[in-house]
Amino acid sequence: MLYRRFGRTELQMPVFSCGGMRYQFKWQDVPNNEIPADNQANLEATIRRALEVGINHIETARGYGTSEMQLGRILPKFPREKLIVQTKVSPTADAKEFRNTFEQSLKNLQLDYVDLLGLHGINHPESLDYSIRSGGCLEVAQQLQTEGKVRFIGFSTHGSTESIVQTINTNKFDYVNLHWYYINQWNWAAIEAAKRHDMGVFIISPSNKGGLLYEPPQKLVNLCAPLSPMVFNDLFCLSHQEVHTLSLGAAKPQDFDEHLKTLELIDRSSEILPPILARLESEAIATLGEDWVKTWETNLPAFEETPGEVNIRVILWLWNLAIAYDLVDYAKMRYNLLGNGGHWFPGNKADQLDKLDLRQCLAHNPYADKIPKILAQAHRMLAGEEVRRLSQE
């Protein structure tokens, strides 16, 4: 395993982390005796495998249902000083509720402290206000630090790049969990801001949210050869020293195996990546057109500025991925979260276009006439059953 300094925490963080949202029994709390023995055995085998290969950062959240409780059966069996344990608690208007929720997390984990506490989902102004206002959740987290129950405080986010940078620039957090990978590089400015503040940078779900790379389409497999899409994406992320660790949402012990192939390639990333990157860009240009690939995002409105709050930018991005790389299943999964994801995946689908006039909000985009037709095409291609966030299931 390779390790990187996790910003000002000074923790030696493995470049892969064991994320805790795919191996648990349920997304809701259930009594301990309802957790099937085979499910618990698989979780424990996954944790043992992670530690065996040097992945000593175990990451979970209060919002991950039975994950914390099930980890609480296995983590106390290992030397505490050899583990880096992170949990996350969502900020709320009532800071006392935040504290009570954290205390439940600690009880579930059967630990005296966590190394990392993330304020979970600082995605919009309201959740930031809940966090940093006087008497807010960050003050509670700092009190927990004083009590020895938390070592370092960070935040996780699915928010806009601007809101992430705003939160980073408060300089009140030691690390950030955010999205950034090959198919979605929008948050690079946030990673640069984190570097300026010497914060740890943790990439959320690069294999799942980065394209459902556990089951990649054949076209993407061909474009990423000789690497698998998963190893390509890992290598792309880790070739940037500003990135410290990638979350691997392992569902079983074998899920680490493909990722581990990345480790021996990192020192050669400057020679391995360019041909693959060139193929991916060439294919996008061949299927979508060079002008579109290079300028489609020009002056697009934010969803809040769009009639019907249609999330034009995200829909066009998903359409691009589906057309260029056959990432249709991924695009469907993400598209059908629109309208259902709250502040975790905001904005709406393009299902009411006949009732909306988008001309004014698109007036400064070079494809103002073309975009409504693409939005309609994207809806026909991607619309299906509504998708709920995993924690809502």
Describe the structure.
- InterPro entries: AKR, AKR2_Oxidoreductase, NAD(P)_OxRdtase_dom_sf, NADP_OxRdtase_dom.
- This protein is an alpha/beta fold and 393 residues long.
- It has 2 domains: 3-268, TIM Barrel, CATH 3.20.20; 289-392, no CATH class.
- The chain contains 15 helices and 10 strands.
- The protein has helices spanning 37-52, 67-71, 95-109, 125-132, 137-146, 161-168, 188-196, 218-224, 229-238, 257-260, 269-288, 290-295, 312-325, 328-335, 371-382, and strands at 3-5, 12-14, 16-19, 57-59, 84-89, 114-120, 150-156, 175-178, 200-203, 245-248.
- It has an 8-stranded parallel β-barrel, surrounded by 4 helices. A two-stranded antiparallel sheet has the order 1-2.
- Helix 6 (161-168) links the parallel strand 7 (150-156) and strand 8.
- Helix 3 (95-109) packs across helix 5 (137-146) and helix 6 (161-168) runs parallel beside helix 7.
- Mean pLDDT is 95; it is low at 389-393.
